[in-house]
Amino acid sequence: MALPAGRVAKWVVLVVWVLIMVAVFPLASKLFDSTNNSLVSYLSRGAESTQVEDLKKQLSTGAGQRVVVVYERAGGIRDDDRAKAKADLDEVVRRYPANAGPASSVTPSGDGNALVFGFTLPAGDPAKEGANTEKAVDETRSLVGQGKDGLSIRVGGPGGVLADQLKSFSGLHTTVLLATIAIVALLLLIIYRSPVLWVVPLISVAFAAQGGQAVASAIAQNTGFTVTSGSAFVLVVLTYGAGTDYALLLIARYREELRRHEDRHDAMKAALRRSGPAIIASAATVGIALLCLLFASMNSNRALGPVGFGGIAFALLAMMTLLPALLVICGRWVMWPAVPRPGGQQPDAKTEHRMWHRIGDAIERRPRKAWIGTLVLLGVLAAGLFTMNLGLKEVDGFTDKPEAVEAQELLLAHYPPGITRPVQVVGRADRLDEVLGVVRDTPGVENAVVVGKNDDIGQITTTLEYAPDTQEETDTLHSLRDRVHQVQGANALVGGHSAILIDVAESNVEDAKIVIPLVLLTILIVLIVLLRAIVAPLVLIATVVISFAAALGLSTVVFQELLGFAGVDSTLPLQTFVFLVALGVDYNIFLMGRAHEEARRIGTTAGMRKALAATGGVITSAGVVLAATFAVLVSLPLVAWVQIGFVVALGVIIDTIVVRTVLVPAITMDLGDRAWWPGSRVEQAVAPRERHDRIGAE
């Protein structure tokens, strides 16, 4: 562990890291070009809507994204409008032959104020579907224009939504990276109050981020995992946030050791020995929690596990090797103007940590009232969960209103609601008539027609009576699936864009039921091993769960009541839980590890007071940095990622300021030595007054 602090080894470490960065740069630079934002790719291959998309590729009706073009004139459609729409459709059919699909004619609205036609893009390489769709939609928009002289034209449909999503991400990876770097640099300047020191951890974490992006790029290009643009953004903020946290902890210990050692190499060796285990345990906890996502069924959720793990692994490796080497190479002067030297004026523990000593003293006087009051406060915040609308509509998923959403609004204003998203039913060709009859008899189905057939399979396009993203549409789709599945030997399946969205939402719920208990169990085992106790780990797990509930509850109120979001995205509970629980336990590991160490010498209550004072400043700084980096996600143009960034940032602040500062110390002081049961008992013979004096002396 002390290798990077060696007089020769430090240079070897630096050279190795530079060579690694040169080697991985080409791969890391391709990460955002390798992401896949196609909604159907989020699902597993076994999902029913995914199977429908695969089967549609065998037919000439098209298996790519569906694009819809809508024309509106408030005073009524004119002949020249119809002529333009027909000419536009002819050109689209020419560009995408045999893929115009079921709505290959211009359809007027019943009120005479609108026209619509749709076409399906050719199926191609799934990895390039996003880029191909964006290009096709852009070309279509250039072809049809926006309209003039009172005619409005909008291009939308599922393909238009995907294109607008990709367009909203264009260039954002640079913006997010620069914003994250700027925030980390500013906070390091404030924390260290040094014009030089902040550069060293920032360089180290930048190297770590480059390595993490290379791992993610390799995963996207060489595995079946779906790495989305959102996952790539999370990787950036996670690596910078966690890496900076580890740097803060190591540098804080290094400062202490520089006051004790003449040789900076010896100081760094001691700092690595004393802080290394806690940092490694912290990274291992986060990494293991992320890997639990591998048990999810959604490809996008599963991919986030190894992608995040790669970022955490590189952050740990850089902070335990590159950062120590750079600090030792730079020497003490890098700490200027407050350069720590042995024999110099030693900071008085009471003076240096005055605020944290006062907090510890206040909690010690009434620990039970402190933790009960804190639980009541967190419970009030968590009450917002009862108002959560878990089902954000696709058209409400943007922070602005792109063209595809405007097209959807025009369709809903002038056409039956079901026309906006036809449902696709695929089954065996020899049983297709029977399936068609069942589809037409299903309540909620407006019409159904066979649109394609070969010797093996056939496709039925169905229009429902209900608007997209409504509970009525969901219930009808479930009923339709139940009915066509009962047709013996037909192997009938129900898909289409609405079915894909429903499968995504339901898969996220099912993944949460599997992954959340698994995360809790694995972290509990890690804590039991680290603390050699059962009671304290159970307490820590309970506190981070309560902290998560409070953060999600308060965020729900902010989203739905203050920001006006229509609901909460289905990905939010699972992904924010994994991040918040793992990262929240992180800080508790630092606090409780120190408390356990001190409790063996001076008792549990006094040990917790000293641990709180010793770790309070650095953990709070780390929490602020991590929250600020995740807050960068709020700048993204999709509501789902705005919500994830907000919840994680708020949760980290709650965990840092409330849970780690008050709740955990209060419960531990109230439990006393029982907190470490059934491990070895802490020192019993130290009188309370003697303990207090010993703390002051130290």
UniProtKB/TrEMBL annotation:
It comes from the Bacteria. Residues 224-329 form the SSD domain. Belongs to the resistance-nodulation-cell division (RND) (TC 2.A.6) family. MmpL subfamily. The chain crosses the membrane at residues 12-32, 172-192, 199-220, 232-254, 275-296, 308-331, 370-392, 514-531, 538-560, 572-590, 611-634, 640-659. Keywords: Cell membrane, Membrane, Transmembrane, Transmembrane helix. The keyword Membrane applies. It is found in: Cell membrane. Pfam families: MMPL. InterPro entries: MMPL_dom, Mycobact_MmpL, SSD. One of its GO terms (cellular component) is plasma membrane. This is SSD domain-containing protein. It is a multi-pass membrane protein. It comes from Kibdelosporangium phytohabitans. PROSITE patterns: SSD (PS50156). SUPFAM superfamilies: Multidrug efflux transporter AcrB transmembrane domain. The keyword Transmembrane applies.
